[in-house]
Amino acid sequence: MRSHQIIDRSRAEALQDDLVAVRYRGNGTVALLVEKPAPRAHAVREQVEVVAGRGFVGDHARKSFWRGVEQPGREVSAIALEVLCVLGANPSAIGDNLITEGVDLRALRPGDRLRVGEVILERSAAPHRPCDLFRDRTSPEAFSAVAQGDFRGALFTVVQGGVMRTGDAIRVLKGELKGVDV
Question: In what order do the strands lie in the sheet with 55-56?
Fold first, then answer.
């Protein structure tokens, strides 16, 4: 069983140090868009349609379920490309929908919003913790480093749907649209 894998603690600590050292620009861009058409299946797309209350149109219906129970606040999952580069992970294999570049997802608090192309996302209160699949797709050391510093990324709900494209600007909306339906 993989849960009993030996972790190289010095490697995990080095990854943690490298993750802490990453610097972000503030606003950023969409590096990659990944639909999940079936469990454990990932399809890279140049553009996706995003719907409020659902997420990416091409995602399978049970994407937001964990151990048979739907988990609210998981319409879109995101991780920073900078984190994946430190971990040496393939961005399309991780399983997140939105791979960002230049945005510090850890700095976002529940309720903070992003404009991504035509879409407005709101940071969910649900934590985006690494799971066994994340460990299997990276390494036990990457799992440990990410879990220690909350580098896994962020989960979002869709406030305003639309089209998202690779290369779209990502703009952090600090308080500009809070409490306002758009």
Answer: 55-56, 47-51, 162-165
